[in-house]
Amino acid sequence: MTRIQLHDSATRRKTEFRPHDPDNVRMYVCGPTVYDRAHLGNARPAIVFDVLYRLLRQAYGPDHVTYVRNITDVDDKINARAAESGRSIAEITDETTAWYFEDMAALGNLLPDHTPRATAYIDRMIDMIADLIARGHAYSAEGHALFRVRSYEKYGALSGRSLDDMRAGARVEVAPYKEDPMDFVLWKPSDDAQPGWDSPWGRGRPGWHIECSAMAAEILGPSFDIHGGGNDLMFPHHENEIAQSACAHDGAPMAQVWLHNEMLQVEGRKMSKSLGNFFTVRDLLDRGVPGEVIRFVMLSAHYRKPMDWTDEKAREAEAILRRWREQIREAGPADVPGNIVEAVADDLNTAEAISRLHALSRAGDVDGLRSGATLLGLLGEELGGWAQAPDVDLSAYGMRLAQARADAMESKDFARVDALKAALQEAGVEVRMSKDGIELLPGSDFDASKLAALS
After folding, report:
1. What per-residue string of b and e applies to 271-303 under the rule 16 or more CB within 10 Å gives b?
2. What is the pTM for the complete model shown?
3. Is the CB of residue 35 less than 8 Å from the CB of residue 78?
4. Arithmetic mean of pLDDT, 81-110
5. Cα–chain-centroid distance for residue 122?
6. Cross-strand bridge partners of residue 25
7. Residue 228: partners with Cβ closer than 8 Å, 6 or more residues away
8. 52: closest CA among 307, 260, 239?
9. Side-chain half-sphere of 356: how many Cα atoms within 13 Å?
């Protein structure tokens, strides 16, 4: 059995992963709120936990792993988008959910076993809230239901925050219906223009945090193995999930291991619309950046470290993937190399796994290269269309470049070589020059018309 080690955010240390039941390994990851296209930052947890899903399937067998990633389709951001656009909430959420699935598939992510939509579990949320009230962990006031935070003595343990410090540092106006400023909403009233469901506390809609607790418990049970998401969700979202889930299930821990990925930057800065460096996954795909390239760049950094997206990294990733895909044309079936599994099993060290794939490439182990890359979701046929080179004869240009290089070796003037090489690259041709010869490879962006200047 593969020895998997994961860094648990709750204990702040890396420990060996031991599932409750090796025949029923269960993982829950917080998914998107569907009101717009997924931005590049949304792609990082999807890719990170897809790799973990692949690792778990490799270790325990595909039939023994259940992966749940929810869809939040009831939220004030969705309501606002409907109001400003004049479109119905259902129309917006159906469209944006389909976009999300499409964009995540373009990045090579497997579809989770379950993708529950919050609106399909409203009754389960109402039941859980009613149970929390009956147990004394929640209360109703003015059409709201609120969780009584001080009823859960371990509150703040995940994020390492003191409840008293949080209260002292609060800078928000306290709602008059709250017993304590830190109490959070489980249910809130809806007006006629907002989506709402009947409940013991009046017509309304669930708070954000109760969604995941209710859906996870329904699909995976009160306690499961892994809960994941971005580190921006650690507080308050995951802290609140832990509290309400434990209190609803006699203190049982919601998840055995908590994993959080770091945030994404763009060209060394936080991604934001005000800085002009905000873009969606679809923006990149439409600009011609292949989904496999996006995935490679994401996996080049450890998930617990900031990931800095740059155009240069994308160009380097494309060149590497083209070279690898050229190498594996004749690859045959093979087991995933043990050192690749070992790297991924060491707290999802995808950066180290990629380094080891480079070593396999240099050694000419094309079978190991292809099978090892599949554990990372790379070099599969489903993502390979972008790298299909056009059928074009570049031998004449290769001979011209070879002659120019031979002349330059005599004259020590490489200006002609540099000019030819630059013109070929501008036309979308990868130029490989070595002491053994010259190889020209047309890329997917090859444009024969740009070679006219060389004719």
Report:
1. beeeeebebbbeebbeeebbbbbbbbbbbbbbb
2. 0.87
3. yes
4. 96
5. 26
6. 65
7. 27, 28, 29, 30, 45, 48, 49, 52, 258, 259, 260, 261
8. 260
9. 21
